[in-house]
Amino acid sequence: xxxxxxxxxxxxxxxxxxxxxxxxxxxxxxxxxxxxxxxxxxxxxxxxxxxxxxxxxxxxxxxxxxxxxxxxxxxxxxxxxxxxxxxxxxxxxxxxxxxxxxxxxxxxxxxxxxxxxxxxxxxxxxxxxxxxxxxxxxxxxxxxxxxxxxxxxxxxxxxxxxxxxxxxxxxxxxxx
Length: 176
Description:
Blueprint: E1 5-6, H1 9-12, H2 19-22, H3 28-44, E2 47-50, H4 58-69, H5 77-90, H6 92-102, H7 106-113, H8 122-132, E3 135-139, E4 144-146, E5 154-160, E6 169-175
Parallel strand pairs: 1-4, 3-5
Antiparallel strand pairs: 2-6, 3-4, 5-6
Helix pairs in contact: 4-5, 5-8
């Protein structure tokens, strides 16, 4: 079984603004090979990827699916986006340092994140973990990280590396 690591601030930077620094854009062929090994790893856990639309709301859609599948909450992606932004705004002390490292200001970050179609980032995923007291296993094609070890339940989410001319993409998982 894969060993998950606690995600540090430097490792968590997966929002589109940071991708060139952290996640290299891979040739399409290499991306396909890594994705097939990711699918094999998920299969060993009894999971498969569940597609989400590539519309900039994929993180919110994936989390909505996971929360519903685990009977934690039944919230659509748009409502979930607003709820997590409200949570971050109410708990800025928890997120301010990460926000300021990535964005001009907390106001700028919240303004962008409240807009439908804005890609969700590591800050949002961390907020989901705290808000719903869940631990996300974030499956990348080559590694796995945890967002909030010790919290239960464990939810598995997938981040697909960006191919040329595209942003990364979040997908939910489900039992097969």
